[in-house]
Amino acid sequence: MRVVFKLFASLADFLPAGRRGNLVEIEADPGSTVGDLITRYQVPEKKAHLVLVNGHYIAPAGRATHVLQEGDEVAIWPPIAGG
Amino acid sequence: MGWNRKVLRVNLTEGTCKAEPLNMQWADEYLGSRGLATKYLVSEIDPMVDPLAPENKMIMSTGPLTGTMASTGGRYTVVTKGPLTGAIACSNSGGFFGAEMKFAGWDMIIFEGRSPKPVYLYVENDKAELKDAADLWGKSCWETEESIKHRLQDPLVRVSSIGAAGENQVLFACIVNDLHRAAGRSGVGAVMGSKNLKAVALRGTKGVSGIKDMKAFMKITTEKKKVLADNAVTGEGLPKYGTQVLMNVINEMGALPTRNHKDVQFESAGKISAEAMHEKRPTDGKPQLVTNAACFGCTIACGRIAEIDKSHFTVVNNPKYWGASGGLEYEAAWALGAANGVGDLEALQYANLLCNEQGMDPISFGATIGAVMELYEMGVLTKEQLGIDAPFGSAEALARLTEMTALGEGFGKEIGQGSKRLCAKYGHPGLSMTVKGQEFPAYDARGIQGMGLAYATSNRGACHLRGYTVASEVLGIPVKTDPLVTEGKPELVKAFQDATAVFDAAGICVFTSFAWTLADVQPQIEAACEGDWSMEKLNAMGERIWNMERLFNNAAGLTNKDDDLPPRLKTEPAKVGPAKGLVSGVEKMLPEYYALRGWTPEGKPTAETLERLGL
Q1: Where are the transmembrane segments (chain A) (predicted)?
Q2: Which helix (H) or strand (E) holds B21?
Q3: CA of B208, closest CA in chain A: separation in Å?
Q4: What are the start-end ranges of the H helices in B207-280?
Q5: Is the distance from CB of B76 to CB of B62 less than 8 angstroms?
Q6: Does residue A64 fall inside a structural domain?
Q7: Which residues make Cβ contacts (< 8 Å) with residue B575, sequence separation at least 6?
Q8: Same fold, B244-439 and B449-613
Q9: Domain spanning B449-613 has what CATH number?
Q10: What is the pLDDT of residue B2?
Q11: Separation CA B81–CA B186 (nearest Å)
C-alpha cells in the first residue's frame, strides 16, 4: 500500500531518495505500523518526538500498534516548540 | 532584593523627569514588569480614558530578574490602555533594552501627558532628560536608533523607538528596540506616538546590585540554565529552527488559519516554513536564514537573522534591505503568509522587514490584510480603492499594502485602523478575525479548542501569549491533551494564564516554560528578592495579576460579551483535517471557566474572589 511519509526539521536527513521537500511516497506492507516505519528508516527513537498520522497525535506507547491504512500521511518531528 | 527600588516619572506635558521610590508593598504583591506596571497604571488612570489622550499613561517596566544572570532575563514590558482594544495593553519585548534600564538604576519609567513637540528621553544612569526630536520625527526605527547613537557618540546606547506607524497612530503600531525586537501587540506604539515621544535611549553602567543572596542566586541560575540546555526543545529545537518550525506542525493538524480563517490548511505552508528558510535558493545559492540570535542573557537563542533574496521584486532596486536583519518568526510568517494565502517566503520577509523598520505588529497587520483580501474577492473593496488588485495569494498586494500602511499612504490609513474597524465600516463586521478588536495569532480555534477559550478570555484581546495551551494540546508540555475536545480546557487555560503572568512579572521569557515550570522559576526569584516567594504566593500572585487586569477591563466598559469569537469560528466548521466538521466550543467552555475563576456568570470577579486575592 502507498503511504506518505514526512520527516521535518533535523529529521529530513533520514528520508530516503526520491523525496520532495520533506515528504516521500513509499510502499508499505499491509499491517505496517507507525513504529515499523520509524524502524525502517532508522529514525532514532528519541528524535521521533512528535508523531502525527493524518494530523492526529500518536502517543509513544501507541506507535507499535497503530496500523497504517492506504493513503495515510505520517509526519514526524524531533523535539520542537514555537510561539 | 532584585529591584533597584527606583521609578522614573516623566511628565511630557511639563517636560520634567523625576525619581521616586518604588512602592515596595506593591512589589511584594505584584513582583515586577507586567504585574507591577499594571498595578501602577490601574491606580493612576481613569479606565474610561481615551487611549490616545494625554491622560492615558504608558509604563515601561522591568522585572526583578531583568538584567540578572537568570537565563532570558532581558525582558521588559510596556503597559498602557490599548488603542486597538480599549482594554489593558501589555506588550513584552526582549533584546537588550530592558537590561539596560536596570543597569541605569531604574525599575520602570512612567510616561504621562503629551509633549508639545517631538522629544526623546535620554537616560544615562541617574541623569534623565527630554531632548528635542524634531529631526527624528519622520525617521524609521532603524534610522532613529542609528541617529541617536551617532549624536551621542555612544554605540552602546540601547534604543526603543516608534517609526512612521507609531507617529501616524496606526492602531497596531509597536515599539521597536534593538532594531528588530518589539513590544508588539495592542498598539502601544500608537500611544507613544500620541505623546510625541519618538524614542527612549538608555545607557547604564551600574550593573545589577542588590541581589538578596548572590551565592545562592549564581548557583540556582546556573543549575536552571543547565535544565534549558539539556532540554531537547530549548537546547536544540528552538535554537536551530526557531518558532517557525511550527508552520508544518500546525498545518498538518489542520489548525493553520488560512485566507482569513476560511480554511484551516495552507497548501503552501511548506514554502514559508522553518525548513524553507534553511533551503538554498536557486537564485543565489544561499538560504534565507543566516543564523540564530539571542536576547540579553538568553541561553535559548530562538531569534532568526535572515537575508532577503536581492533579486526579489520587492527589493531588487532597494539595497537598504539587502543586509542580514530580523527574520521571520512563526507568528509573523503565518500572519503575512497563510492568513493571506501568500506563499512567497521572500515577500513575507520584505513585509516583515518593513514592520520592523516602521514599527508595526505583523500579526495584526497581516491578519487585517487577510480581511482586506476577502473583502476584495467579495467585490466590497476594489482596485480603485486599494490602488492594486488584492486577491488572496498576491505577494505584490501584500508588499504594496505593507508600504502603504507603514507610511500612512492612501488606503493604508484605513488598514492601519485594524480589521475590526475596517470590516465594520464596509458592512461585514463578522469578517474581522478578532477578539476585543485584536487580531488572532496563528492557531485556529476549531482545531485547537483550548486556544479558542484562551483567545476569548485574554485580557489584551486575541493573543497566544496570555495562555499558550498549544504547549499542552500540540506539544505535550507539560502533559499532552487532546486539541479537539473542550473537556478540561477551562482548567488548562486558567493554569496557563496564571503561570504566564508570573513568568512575565519576573522579567524572563515565557519560552523558558517549554523546559521550566513555575517550580524552576520560584527558587530564582527567592534567591534574588527579599521576602517570602513560596510557590503558594506565586500562584496566588499570578491569579491576582489576571484578576487585576480583568477588573480594569470591566471598568473600561468591557463585559462578558467581549469574551467571544467571531461567528465564522462558531458556525463554519473546519473543512479538512482532524478538526473537519468542528467549530469552536467556546460557548460551552466559558461558564466553567468563569466558575473556576470565581467570577459571576457575567464574567465579574465576585467579592469573595477579590477578597481572597487581596484586590
Answers
A1: none
A2: strand B16-21
A3: 30
A4: 214-230, 232, 238-241, 246-252, 274-278
A5: yes
A6: yes
A7: B263, B264
A8: no
A9: 1.10.599.10
A10: 86
A11: 9
Angstrom distance (rounded) from CA B441 to CA B430? 17
B613 Cα distance to chain centroid: 27
Percent of chain A with pLDDT over 70: 100
Going by their DSSP bridges, the two strands B6-11 and B108-112 should be labelled as parallel
Domain count, chain A: 1
Residue among A57, A58, A74 with most chain B CBs within 10 A, to mutate? A57
Name residue B124's amino acid: E
Q: Which residues of B have a CB under 8 Å from any CB of A?
A: 231-234, 236-238, 240-246, 248-249, 252-254, 270, 274-275, 330-331, 464-465, 468, 470-471, 474-477, 480, 482-483, 510-511, 514, 577-578
Residue B303 main-chain phi, psi, to 5 deg = -60, 150
Residue A45 lies in a domain: yes
The shares of helix, strand and coil residues in chain B, as percent rounded to the nearest 5, are 45, 15, 45
pLDDT at B210: 85
Look up the CATH number of the domain holding residue A50.
3.10.20.30
Of B238, B248, B483, the CB nearest to A81: B238
Closest Cα in chain B, distance from residue A37 (Å): 18
Q: Is the pLDDT of residue A79 over 70?
A: yes
pLDDT at B1: 61
The secondary structure element, H or E, covering residue B42 is helix B33-44
Cβ contact (<8 Å) for B237 and A79? yes
Alpha-carbon separation of residue B384 from B17, B314, B380, B381, B391 (angstroms)? 49, 22, 11, 8, 14
Classified by CATH at the fold level, domain B244-439 comes out as 1.10.569
Residue B105 contacts residue B206 (beta carbons within 8 Å): yes
A53/B210: higher pLDDT = A53
- Domain hosting A18: range is 2-77
Identify the sign of the CA torsion B273, B350, B328, B383: negative
ipTM of the complex: 0.98
Asked, for residue A82, whether it belongs to a domain, the answer is no
What residue has cell string 479548542? Answer: B449
Residue in B275, B257, B248, B483 with CA at minimum distance from that of residue A56: B483
Please count the CA atoms within 13 angstroms of the CA of B188 that sit on its side-chain side. Answer: 27
Nearest 10 degrees: Cα torsion B237, B240, B244, B247? -60
Indicate the pTM of the whole model. 0.98
Residue B396 to residue B297: CA distance in whole angstroms: 39
Q: Write down the CATH superfamily of domain B6-203.
A: Aldehyde ferredoxin oxidoreductase, N-terminal domain (3.60.9.10)
Which amino acid does the sequence have at B404?
M
pLDDT at B209: 82
Q: Are B196 and B118 contacting, i.e. CB atoms less than 8 angstroms apart?
A: yes
Which residues of chain B, if any, have pLDDT below 50?
none
Q: How far apart are CA B330 and CA B538, in angstroms?
A: 30
Q: Are B510 and B500 within 8 A, CB to CB?
A: yes
Vertex A51 angle, CA A48 and A53, to 5°: 145
* Alpha helix stretches (DSSP H) within B516-613: 518-528, 535-555, 567-571, 586-597, 607-613
If you count DSSP H runs as helices and E runs as strands, how many of each does chain B have, helices first? 26, 17
Domain spans in chain B, listed from the N-terminal domain onward: 6-203, 244-439, 449-613
